[in-house]
Amino acid sequence: MTSKRVKLSFQRREESTASHHCCVPRCTASAKFNSVLSFHTFPRDKETRRKWLTNIRREHCTLTNNTRVCSLHFQSCDLIQPSSPCGRRRLKNGAIPVRFHWNNFTPADPHNPVWEEPERPNRTFDHDYCRKTKPYVLDSSPDHIVGPSGKVFDSKFCLEQFDSDEDIRFYTRFASHAHLMAFWRQIEPATRNISYVSTACSVGETDDGPYTVTKTLLQPIDQFFLFMIYLSLGLMPKDLAHRFRIHQSTVCRIIHIWAYFLYTLLGGVSIWLDEEVVSAHRPHVFEQFPDTHVILNCMEVHCQTPNPRHLKSESFSSYESKCTFKGLIGMAPHGAVTFVSSLNEGAISDREILQQSGILSLLKPTMALIIDKGFHVRECVPCKVHTASFLSKREALSQPEVVKTQSARLRVHVDSLIQRVKQHQIFSTVIPFSLSGSINQLYTVACLLVNYQNGPQVKA
């Protein structure tokens, strides 16, 4: 004799069209697709109703006639089973929901009217690899968690939860927690001037008259943390909305605001260095080329292919063989980013992007560039250019050409710098057209942050 098991969690009720849902957070029970559970309204007694709301962590919930709590969250002794098959399961007077995800209640058998975890036999094993450890316990306040070391922190996803250098490098690309906090202390005073556009505002009064303050769900440091996660890991706004427990539109607004804020703030700092500063920090590998002031190369970011043919031809890069955005980036010999151009269409030539970037006005005759062989710019730059030489059907290079070729090898440092920028995973994906309005700000901020996130590119 065989028994047929029916997956009741997806069984649709034929005798009822009820569509009640359980209002307990993280509970997905629905009366429309589960005929085993019962759904109970809130009690009329104010004290008992307050206990219900406190236990389910919905103190500020607005109750309606359709607000229900399913029988999963009650003990079996609190439920009165119906006397007939067509009867309705009821609750005893004073019954309170006590079984939830956050107090380690896990239903073991979804085919029972009340899910109860069966008792395990008392057995002893050398190792129990299936047993789940419980490193975190709930504090008396539902909004806080006590870690193994006794530290209490907010249960929401926020920067406060991560204090190890490994986590900070993973989420923000900063070398350590100290690097991140040092950078935050520099920009924190300017964050007080950020204006948020929202419908949730509060009006205050000062000596100068009334003022309007926009309420935000996240603290400024957590908004900065959200933006860095978006830039570093390339997570979708919906994913970030679930992590930070805010609306997806709020995530998009925070990303947009902080992209322009950091673009304006970091872009206002002059990163082009004088010859004396570059000479004082020049590493020993550049001793043969003491006049080198900047190493230039182009960085390309893969973008979505446009539908019109004429736009596709403008954005198609022959070097990458795909549609890209293209920008020029410059590095000082010691590894600091000293020049970042705006992004252009991928079909633009290296010579044209050099002329449009504005770097020519910064160069002096006493300076020298190290560039790739594809940069045919000797006629348009007002300084010396170091690049590789080629045999061109000759048997050997001359001594000056050998020296120039050795200088071209130093261009590998700017390639490493570009890889540091591309470690921001947002540039490892295809940039959609929806980001075309802010991709230039995101790219510039990612390039400028390299000066703050990492140690020296070239060791002295």
Question: What can you tell me about this protein's structure?
Answer:
With 460 residues, the protein is an alpha+beta fold. It has 3 domains: 8-119, no CATH class; 165-267, no CATH class; 275-453, Nucleotidyltransferase, domain 5 (2-Layer Sandwich), CATH 3.30.420. The chain contains 12 helices and 16 strands. Strands 10, 11, 12, 13, 14, 15 and 16 form a 7-stranded mixed β-sheet that branches. A 3-stranded antiparallel β-sheet has the order 5-6-7, with no helix packed on it. Strand 8 (201-206) and strand 9 form a beta hairpin. Helix 4 packs across helix 6 (248-267) and helix 5 crosses helix 6. The protein is elongated and about 100 Å long.
Short summary:
The protein has 460 residues and is α+β, with helices and mostly antiparallel strands. The protein has twelve helices and 16 strands.
Task: Please name the defining characteristics of this protein.
disordered N terminus, 3 domains, 14% strand, single chain, Nucleotidyltransferase, domain 5, alpha+beta, 460 residues, 3-stranded antiparallel β-sheet, 7-stranded mixed β-sheet
Q: Return the CATH topology of the largest domain.
A: Nucleotidyltransferase, domain 5
By CATH, the architecture of the largest domain is named 2-Layer Sandwich
- Overall pLDDT, averaged? 76
End-to-end C-alpha gap: 81 Å
C-alpha Rg, in Å? Answer: 31 Å
| Residue windows where pLDDT falls under 50 for at least 5 positions | 1-17, 108-118, 123-148, 198-215, 389-394
Helix content: 25-40%
Please work out how many helical segments DSSP would assign.
12
